[in-house]
Amino acid sequence: MQSGRKFPYGKLIFFVTGNIHKFNEARRILAEHGVSVAMLKVKTVEIQDNEIENIAKMSALNAVREVNLPLIVEDAGLFIEALNGFPGPFSSYVYRTIGLSGILKLLDGVENRRAQFKSAVVFCDPSGELRCFVGISNGRIAEKPRGTSGFGFDPIFEPEEQPAKTFGEMSIEEKNLFSHRARALKKFAEWYRNFLGA
Ligand code: IMP
User: How far is the CA of 195 from the centre of ligand 1 (A)?
Assistant: First the structure.
């Protein structure tokens, strides 16, 4: 393992998030790839943008300025085909306002229920290195919520690889087999190990 001034934290990365569900998903998937992660709560200003990649990049740059540590930030969104990609980058606001029932109402009687979760994981460190890793999970919106695991839109999203279940009916381990976040984090971990020369 590399050490010294450039890599004082070894294969430890700080995940800037206030969402314990995201952190628990990340902890498991990163551990599988030999990377340790610590949760770091930093107040960052989340910009409004049509691209979740840009939102995550700005948050990561702001966070590094605050804490001077190698870190990752993640931004995610649910893109529903019949709604032209809504709520997309506004997923958090839409979840807090109209919630699952509001989304289901918008899709009432709509046959095309195809949807996509997208995750952008951005790595940034004090040297100015900035990398973005994207993960996607394709699936469909269920007719009604099922399951109590996870968070956000999990109870209404059925991934195409396991359409009999929503993410809300899965353990973290199972969700990580199909999730947008796990896919983006896996790409990050593979790159990070290489970056550290591990
Ligand atoms: P954030 O801005 O990355 O926190 O995510 C925006 C919103 O998308 C969250 O508030 C959740 O409602 C939703 N979301 C993001 N990722 C997931 C997920 O893995 N499962 C369910 N909902 C998610």
Answer: 28
Give which of 159, 41, 152 is closest to 100, Cα–Cα: 152
Confidence check: pLDDT of 6 > 80: no
User: Which residue is listed with tokens 């690889």?
Assistant: 161
In a domain, 5, yes or no: no
Please check whether residue 171 lies inside any domain of the structure: yes
Q: Give the number of domains in the chain.
A: 1
SS3 99: helix
Q: Is residue 59 part of a domain?
A: yes
Q: Is the pTM of this model over 0.85?
A: yes
Q: How far is the CA of 2 from the centre of ligand 1 (A)?
A: 34
Is residue 159 in contact with ligand 1, taking CB distance under 6 Å?
Answer: no
pLDDT over 70 percentage in the chain: 95
In this structure, the residue with its CA closest to atom 15 of ligand 1 is 76
With a 6 Å cutoff on the Cβ, whether 150 touches ligand 1 is yes
* Ligand 1 centre distance from Cα of residue 8 (Å): 32
Domain at 63, CATH number: 3.90.950.10
